[in-house]
Amino acid sequence: MKLSVFANLFVASAATAIPAEILVGSLEARSSPILHGRADCGGYASTCTGGYLIVQSGSEVDFTAYKCGNGKGGYDDSTINLNTCIANVGGNLVFTKNGDYGSSCSGSTVSGTTLTANCGNGKGGYVSGSIDLNSILCNQGGNLRC
After folding, report:
1. Matching SMART domains, A to Z (predicted)?
2. Residues 6+ apart with CB under 8 A from 44
């Protein structure tokens, strides 16, 4: 069963509550969207062992993982546009389909599996936002997916 939901969310963090209005495309058998990780995807780092490259050109942000096991005894390199997986909500990077975070964030870098970027906070300022890519990206047959 697929549901299209437009929700007013209040995401609680240890420091503050962040109001967020986001469009959630479709939810399958979930009562609420998962903002900081996914129950059905994740763990790409354990099967993509050849390093990574992140390239931000304007609002486009491409992440390439090298030497991803393809399930057939071989390895493939895989690239994914992170705008298809991540949104900027008040300076916080969160998982959501087609989030287009690159349109409001710049200077994307990755250290380990953590993506960090300088993001607009919706109040005229910029803050450092981050998200663990290993919690939202998975390797499916040598291809990165979110």
Report:
1. CVNH
2. 65, 68, 133, 134, 137, 138, 139, 144
